[in-house]
Amino acid sequence: MAAASTEATESAESVPARKPGNKKNKALVILLTVAIVGGWFGLKWFISSRTDIETDNAFIEARIVQISSKVSGTVAQVFVGDNQFVKRGDLLLEIDGRDYQLRISQAAAGVGMAENEMGGEQLKADGARAAVQSARARFDQAVLDQGRAEKLYSRDVLSKEQLDRLITARRVSEAQLKEAEEALRRAQAEAGLAIKAGSKARILQRKAQLDEAELQLSYTKIYAPRDGYITRKSIESGVNVQAGQPLMALVPLQDAWITANYKERQITYLKSGQKVEFSVDAYPGKIFQGTVDSIMAGTGAAFSLLPPENATGNYVKVVQRVPVKINIDKNSDPERLLRVGMSVVPVVLTGRTSGDVMKELNPF
User: Fold this and answer.
1) Over the chain, what is the mean pLDDT?
2) Which end of the chain is more exposed for a tag (fewer CB within 10 A), N or C?
3) DSSP 8-state code for residue 19
4) C-alpha–C-alpha distance, residues 24 and 30, integer Å
């Protein structure tokens, strides 16, 4: 027993005692490692935030085309439904055109009447012209008779009474000639012949009314002005509509874009043509591409309905946001998944390197 205890004591003394400083060294190494890794990721995030500009204040927009009617009437038939894709020139709806067809018939009848009236007035002018020629012939004859009578009177062959009668006949024929010439001018004016360019003014007026009636009839068929999706359709067959009344909206998603509201200190290195990668909440994990198109000429607050008045004395500085237009790459969304109003997180790839960012931090 004594020998066993002695051996145990000797073995215990041979094992070196653990120093309490080893735990502190391990903790220090772990802490240093965490600090280095955290600093590395922090520096990487900082550089990335300066080279790839990101914001979550961005939305998809498009120019919504309001479809309305140019004429009043009853809707005869609607050829499209909600959210349907249509191409430019597709017939959307048709308004009952029977009333406008009657207007065309009335206008065509007016053209025919004007042409007939023009022919009658032309005949009047021709008759007035013949009357002038006849009156001029009588006047010429009266002038000759007066001249002969004056010669005979000078020879005492003709009496004074007969001479006076011939002079009176000449005056009467002269007055009749003037009256006939005035009637001719009046007939020419009525026929539109007094003015060179106005010979068919009345006919042209009636033809213009006919063209207008035909144009009104063409407005009864409403076609798609461009490719897009039908939305907000508020019309059905049998409904009476008024001119200018909104009937539906057309959204050209193929021409949609992103409006990203970046903070004013984020647009320092933003330029047109820079590549953009963005994601939407509706399709997590899917990345779309785009390109910076332009930067708005002012902040959003400057163009708001009630812009801020900074000269009132109670000014508080607020970071402003500048809208940036981003064109969507059509090849990145061939299925037209994006919709107007969706929230977007765009990241602009400015092309700057980590060296460019570190140069800014160099105080020397």
Assistant:
1) 82
2) C
3) P
4) 10
Q: What is the DSSP letter of 312?
A: S
Determine the distance from the C-alpha atom of residue 266 to the mean position of all C-alpha atoms in its chain, rounded to a whole number: 32
Separation of CA 146 from chain center = 81
DSSP per residue, 209-228: HHHHHHHHHHTTEEE-SSSE
pTM assigned to the model: 0.64
d(CA 248, CA 107): 32
The pLDDT-based confidence of 198 (bands split at 50, 70, 90) is very low
Give Cβ neighbours of residue 282 (< 8 Å, ≥ 6 apart): 337, 339, 342
DSSP 155-202: TTSS-HHHHHHHHHHHHHHHHHHHHHHHHHHHHHHHHT-SSGGGTTHH
Note whether 244 and 68 are within 8 A (CB). Answer: yes
Read off the pLDDT of each residue in 317-339 and give the average, rounded to a whole number.
Answer: 91
Task: Name the residue with higher pLDDT: 163 or 226.
Answer: 226
Question: CATH topology for 65-97+218-251?
Answer: OB fold (Dihydrolipoamide Acetyltransferase, E2P) (2.40.50)
Is the separation of the CB atoms in 262 and 55 below 8 Å? Answer: yes
> Is residue 247 over pLDDT 90?
yes
Look at residue 295 and give its three-state secondary structure: strand
Flag the least confident range among 4-13, 221-230, 234-243, 347-356.
4-13
252 burial class (0-12, 13-18, 19+ CB within 10 angstroms)? middle
Please give the Cα distance from 256 to 252 (Å, whole number): 7
Q: Which fold has domain 52-62+253-361?
A: Elongation Factor Tu (Ef-tu); domain 3 (2.40.30)
Q: What is the pLDDT of residue 306?
A: 81
Instruction: Tell me how long the chain is.
Output: 364
**Which residues are within 8 A (CB) of 354 and not within 5 positions of it... i.e. 6 or more apart?**
47, 51
Based on its alpha-carbon atoms, the radius of gyration of the chain, rounded to whole angstroms, reads 49
**3-state DSSP: the chain helix, strand, coil percent, rounded to 5?**
50, 20, 30
C-alpha 121/C-alpha 220 separation (Å) is 38
Better-scored residue on pLDDT, 68 or 51: 68
